[in-house]
Amino acid sequence: MTVTQEYLNFLKKNFKGLKLRVPLFYNWAYGIRFDLQVGSTTSDDYFEEMTRRATTIFESAFNTSDDVFLILRDYKFRRRKIRFSNYAFKQLKNLKKADIGYSKESRVYNPNDYLDLTNLAIVKTTAGEINYSNLLMAIGHTDFWPRQPRLDDVGALSCKEIYFINITKNLIFNMYDDRGIDIIANDLETIRPIFTSHNAWILEYDREQIEKTFE
Question: Which domain holds residue 120?
Fold first, then answer.
């Protein structure tokens, strides 16, 4: 079985009906949305706190030994591909080209738009093999050219998305940009400890809905 088939089977079994897309929180019954924003985006302190919060939440959701699918999505335009030289792959220890599964998806965000095409790269690894702090920092820099590191060097316009799927715990983690993180799971009790330990960082806009879910 290829890594792509394994990934698709995992989603079908554990997250039936889920379309892996932003915003995860609004696409699944059991989830938490966290706020990463503190202060002004003109300050280095803003990005340091963003990375600290994101890294702390990640470490609450993943043990180093947990099996993980790392999913990298990018919009497809003409002959554009996800290349082995991209920044995300450089943050995975001992990654080989043969370890990566590739796929294409259509109409992920707009079912009526035939131009809604994306490339998908899938890697199966363990959390301990991922330099997740660098990846989370790069995601947070998406809208802030020329801050480094970045997922790519195409100026301020980046369409890359990264999803960390914890195979061991059946949860999915997505930092969508510098503003926040969504975590979903197929069992509410899986993410209850994260809800409890980082309750102060829950996004206030969605707090009422989240707290009702955990009653």
Answer: 3-16+40-175
